[in-house]
Design goal:
Elements lengths: L22 H14 L4 E6 L6 H14 L5 E4 L10 H15 L6 H19 L2 H4 L1 H4 L9 H15 L4 H9 L1 H26 L3 E6 L6 H14 L5 E7 L1 H12 L4 H6 L4 E4 L14 H13 L8 H14 L4 H16 L9 H13 L1 H9 L4 H8 L14 H12 L2 H7 L12 H8 L10 H9 L8
Parallel strand pairs: 1-4, 1-5, 2-3, 3-4
Helix pairs in contact: 1-2, 3-4, 4-9, 10-11, 13-14, 13-15, 14-16, 15-16, 16-17, 16-22, 17-22, 19-21
Amino acid sequence: MKINPPQAIVDEKDPFAQALFGRKDFGESLTSLLRNVSENLVIFVNAPWGEGKTTFSRMWRAHLKNQKLDVIYFDAYATDYFDDPFVSFTGEILELVDKRLAEGKGLIERREFKKTAVEVGKRLAGLAAKVGLRAATLGAVESAHVEELKEIGTEIASGVSEIGADVIEKKIENYAGEKDALKSFKESLAKLAAKVREEQGFPLTIIVDELDRCRPDFALGLLERIKHLFDVEGVAFVLLVNRKQIESYIRTVYGNEDAEAYLLKFGNLFVDLPCQQPAFSFQHENGRKEYCQRLFSHYGISGRVRDDGMLARSAESLLNQFDTTLREIERTFTVMALYYSSLPERELTNEFLILMLSILKIKKPALYQKLSMGTVSVARFFEETGLDRLKNERSDGVDPAWVKDILQYCLMSDDELEKAIKNPDGTENTQSRISRLGTWLFSYNLHRTKVIPFFCGRLDRFSAQPQ
């Protein structure tokens, strides 16, 4: 068995082979959009944490590579040790140009771009006298100097607090020069981008990932740089973000700022990455089902349960009920895999309860904790989970009524159970589904109200760290 989530395999020949929820169509549409729009574009692709934004970007980049298109991938979180993302962007652009425009093509444009980038970088740093000309001019924009830039990072950061009135006065005096430097930089970038588009029929595109994991000041600074420095024709940005998180950054930095309106300043388009509940769900209805089946196979759970088909269908139904993200689904399966891996071969279990408790452990930890202590009533449980509202029609082998009966049997008080197994006239109902559970559901010498705490204890033996 395995206990770690599967790594998405991106087939170079068929990058979207394992894509879910219609993301192949989305990726192809995104490619067409960038290819056909000549203006500059800043596209925010929104999805909650754990919904596979990075996996999609890997697939999409491989798809673009198959079409002989080169783009820049920028992991914002991996580079937020820089005080300013300008150095990273310019360095990545130069690397792409060197790769794409071979044999001297665009040499003049490249030289001009680097020269203007150095000038802008010098003015952005504003600390040439303190840390040395080479550092302040971003000496360079070449990736070979990244380690050097790391070393001066602490000195730059401490120097900022020492900037006084004389520096501010000097910046005011140099305002015209800074405007000219910025204008020259954007003009040179536009020329370089035009060369890239001419060569590959596709804009100079920068994919920015993990922005919502960065420090708030760095994340917003990066957006400001995109808006004020790289907003030129022929350059496109595709930012994969959790929009709610970025808006929370705006509120953190700017207080009661209208975060939604503020974010609109930075992008042309805001689109949602197709996830588990798209607007046209009929197009992607099998996505969650396929993923659950894939995880059952990956973790090796199928070989440890009696009816893996029914359990897989139950997993799909219950994960839908709790509106779990893809990452939460993976963590649920990790919890189950740890349980079954540590389970002695002859020890009996109840697969459905293990599934249910694994979901609750990830999705509703507070409720799970109360269940582990045996302090949740049946009414409270159904109020917090909504499982009593599951339709009773049998669907694809799953019987919701049976599901609810198991939970009721374990959580009811003795008085509630006695009422449930009696007919309206007060006589015993020997055919009652609930009464029959006691004869075959468990083989432990435990009172039924101790069964859920018992299984919680088993699930808590080995606790996986959140992914």
